[in-house]
Amino acid sequence: MSPLVSAELSQWQKPAFQHPSPTHPTKINAVPLPTWRHLTHRRLQAHPSPLTSSNTLLAAPLPQWLQEPIIPRLLSIPLTPHDRHHSDNSATHIFSASPHGAPNHCLINEYTPGHGIHAHEDGAAYHPIVATISLSAPIVLDIYRKPSAPGEGGLGGSLDHLKTPAYRILQEPGSLLISAGEMYTGYLHGIAAVEADEEVRGGEGGVVNWGMVGEEWRGRFDGAGDRWRRRETRVSLTFRDVVRVRSLGKGLGFLAAGGKK
Predict the structure, then answer these.
(1) Is the full-model pTM beyond 0.70?
(2) For 153, left (φ over 0), alpha (ψ -120 to 50), or beta?
């Protein structure tokens, strides 16, 4: 795993984490249509279920096809030297410090050409580490510094700095992107609603991980004139550990008692 900007920001990428396979796209597309939630610019699935209005997950395992072989591989990724220095001595892998020691939730997003998602943060419902696997097609992720005060884009402040990303990341198919620590809490991320990703190259204004991108994808952008590529449908698997989990049995017990506490 290599840091994308600096070790202190705790964001790393592993280009060839998930080898190309028809298994996951087939499983994703085989899920019953009601499982898909259609939003304005994308559709998504939440496994094992969406969070409640109080950001609580009803206790249930992830589907087996999302567990194997992904979860064991995520739990085999060791902490970086920087994060090991700032963690408990017993921490051994990237989810060691999370409440349940492993991801318990997966969000599947599908983006078609011309669609994206505004700059946002994942928030306090999750332990501050997120692992995202990209499938099907490449896409550029934009990273923005988070507004923190009125004069810096907070309430009543300017949002001009959100017009230009602090940096950009090319997420190629099969790659794993991990964000934690300061990158999770101090930055926003989004995907531009464009038909094609432009300036996909190294150097100023390009993508920070150009040197980590696989030769196949570097070659496709290298020969594209001004380094742009028309988008295709891209799917992502986002694994996180939801902090608040409630047993379904407790909820049923409450109903059986007629709602009395």
Answers:
(1) yes
(2) left
